[in-house]
Amino acid sequence: MDILNALVAILNYVVIPATAYGAQLALGALGVTLIYGILRFSNFAHGDTMAIGTAITILFTWMLQSFGISFGPLPTALLALPLGIAATAVLVLATDRAVYRFYRVQRAAPIIFVMASVGVMFVLNGLTRLLIGVDERRFDDGTRFVINAREFREWSGLSEGLALRGTQVLTVVVAVAVVWALFWFLNRTRSGKAMRAYSDNEDLALLSGIDPERVVRLTWIIAAGLATIAGVLYGLDKSFRPFNYFQMLLPIFAAAIVGGLGNPVGAIAGGFIVAFSEVAVTYPWRKVAGYLAPDWQPAGLLQLLGTEYKFAVSFVILIVVLLFRPTGLFRGKSV
Amino acid sequence: MKKLLLATAASALLTGAAGAEEIKLGILFGFTGPLESMSPDMQRGAELAMREVSDSGKLLDGSTVVAVTGDTTCIDAAAATAAAERLITAEGVKGIVGGMCSGETIATLENVALPNGIVMISPSATSPALSTIEDNGLFFRTSPSDARQGEVMADIILEKGIDTVAVTYTNNDYGKGLADSFAAAFAEKGGTVTVNSPHDDGKPDYSAEVAALASAGGDALVVAGYVDQGGSGIVRGALDTGAFDTFVFPDGMIGQALVTNFGAEIDGSFGQNPAAEGEGRDTFIAMAQEAGFDGSGAFAAESYDAAALILLAMAKAGSSDPNVYKDSVMDIANEPGEQILPGQLERALEIIAEGGDVDYVGATSVELVGPGESAGVYREVSFSGGEMEVIGYR
Hints:
The structure holds two protein chains of two kinds.
Chain A: H1 2-39, H2 46-66, H3 77-105, H4 110-132, E1 145-147, H5 149-156, E2 164-165, H6 166-188, H7 190-200, H8 202-207, H9 212-237, H10 242-259, H11 264-282, H12 286-292, H13 310-324
Antiparallel strand pairs in A: 1-2
Chain B: H1 2-18, E1 22-29, H2 39-56, E2 64-71, H3 77-90, E3 95-98, H4 102-116, E4 119-122, E5 139-141, H5 146-159, E6 164-170, H6 173-188, E7 192-199, H7 207-216, E8 220-224, H8 230-241, E9 247-249, H9 256-262, E10 270-274, H10 279-291, H11 300-317, H12 322-325, H13 329-333, E11 338-340, H14 345-353, E12 358-360, E13 368-369, E14 373-374, E15 378-384, E16 387-393
Parallel strand pairs in B: 1-2, 1-3, 3-4, 4-5, 6-7, 6-8, 8-9, 9-10, 11-12
Antiparallel strand pairs in B: 10-15, 13-14, 15-16
Helix pairs in contact in B: 2-11, 3-4, 5-6, 7-8, 11-14
């Protein structure tokens, strides 16, 4: 019984939250890694692309809700998602036309692209706040729980509750579907192969008749889609506030770099590594230890780091990986 | 040139003769930030008292009172200090109703009000640290210290038969002051605090904090936070994971937003906030309703009283100079004298003009003790059926 209690406690406080968070980070990191692999720069505006994509989706969600349309047990935001992605893609393509293309034509160094993306980040930052304000928004509707903590406790007779939110299941399901679609696209379709060829060697790709502008456009559209999906899932699961998306940039980059920048599989693995470390390192293990070893009653909480230092975990992982394996766990392009 | 000099001299003479002036009072609240939903009602409360005095025409030979607002943001001491600096040096206010949150109030008092010799009466800064701060007699508050709230909260919890609690507080002077005074009082009365840990405001998700609290355990969770900020986030996380079912809410959490956010999910939880009962409060709520705002909003009545105290003290001292009228504040607030309720400020000014004594009771039964802070009456509330109910006063 005690072992079951310990298991449920770990599931409830570590495995479930970390899995959902990891899936959100993985989607964000995929966008970053894709841009790095094909356009060859670190896109600092990715966090704010997520924010503005989510903001647009929230506006569409409100519009649908005002028409009385809902998605049954699923959040209405899922219906608004395609509209949000389309609008964000248009915005991102316009940014590329206005900012990045100029430097691409000049064949500017990657660091110049990075600095330009910092500028774009600030502009998007302001745009998001103009569009929807700085306040916290909750836009999840539909069924909140798949498993309710109180009901689980009554049903199982355990002293620990298990809660599984609808948005957590949704996050993982959507993430798996998106990742599968992305890999299928990159490996099986002509356009996907063109993108990989362009990523491997730009000049050779040009010689074999690949239209570079088309590849760039496709990349931006896919990145915008990934950013919006990641942002909406994160906002549904937690809450939407523009500033938090800006802060997400750090764990997302940590995830992409840990996995190896430019390597999609690495981005996914990196997302889960960062998420699980953040949660496990800041989780106090006293209760679990109490179940497993009832005779041993530690005085402290058995917590490695206070929850205030959650962000520090991403930093530490980032530094360790950069020191010992600069290309990341899955051999991305060197940073 | 001669004409100009003459005109200047004449106008100087004129103003001197009348004796009436335009008195500016600062209203220094967190109009943005974690308590932004409370500020508008507080501002209207303070302005109500100013308008009442101004319209009566009986303050210092018919002086008028004008309110000037400044935004403290509640959490950013630098922004609060800059706002106070502006009110005093650029606008020339003679007194300040504010600050709103404890940390920001300590910063503005030490850095601006004290060096400039300006009276501050805060309606809502409740940190125990403000009781012992060096203030040259310039700082007062119409709310009680949290040292007292800590004791009241400990009593309420123990009376409900709960003797182990976990405590989480917002990571600032208010939260820490309240949590520490509560933990001390609770331990002294025989209860056990399993953990006393901070949470930061403005995070998207508090599952990590909730996990830590759940691991420490306890029959109830005391949330010494802000309802528009992390406080609600913690409650959301605790409800979602089933970590706690019963919550105890001190003053920063009591608000309509709590009911709107959680409804019936927090049934069985309870809390308290400083609020007096009685005729003064009822009168104030009726006056507020007439003026078009909610007088029962947190600290709105305290704001009215803070503004009224400053103005009556000016009348009593016969001067709008803060260094003169600061000594009259305690006289006005306490016995002896005729009791003054909201809406009777004109009457109070008349009594003062005749040389009589007033005992300002106001909307919150003002009784200033010790270093110039309210003795403290708390309203006990509980939640059932998705509604907040007032249980009683203590």
